[in-house]
Request: fold
Amino acid sequence: MAFDLAQPGLTAWLAIHAGFRMDQMQPARLVELVCVIRKDTALGTLQWPALTALLAETRTARFAYPARALVEHLVPGPLPPEVIAAALAAVGLLALVPLVMAGIGSPVRRAA
Reply:
C-alpha cells in the first residue's frame, strides 16, 4: 500500500526519519530530504511557516532538528535562517551545537 504525503508533512516526516538513530544514520535519507526540500520549495508546495507550525504543534521539532542541522551544514542554503532558529529554539541545546557541528565535517580517518 502506497500513499502520497503532502507538504509540510512530507518534509517533517523525512527530517524526523533521517534524524532518528543518528548513530546509524544513512546518508541516502539526507539526500532524499535535500531533494524534496529543493523541489518542493521551487514548486511552492513547501511553505516554511507551515512546517515550523506543524513541528511545534506536534511537539516533534526536537526530533527533526538533527537532520535539519546536518542538511544545512553539509549542503548550505536549503533552509531559511528562521527555520534554523526555530529548530534550535525547540531543541534548547545552543551551547552544544558548535561542538556537534565541528565533529560532523571532520574527515573520515582510516585505521592503519
The helical segments are 9-19, 27-43, 48-57, 61-74, 81-91, 97-104.
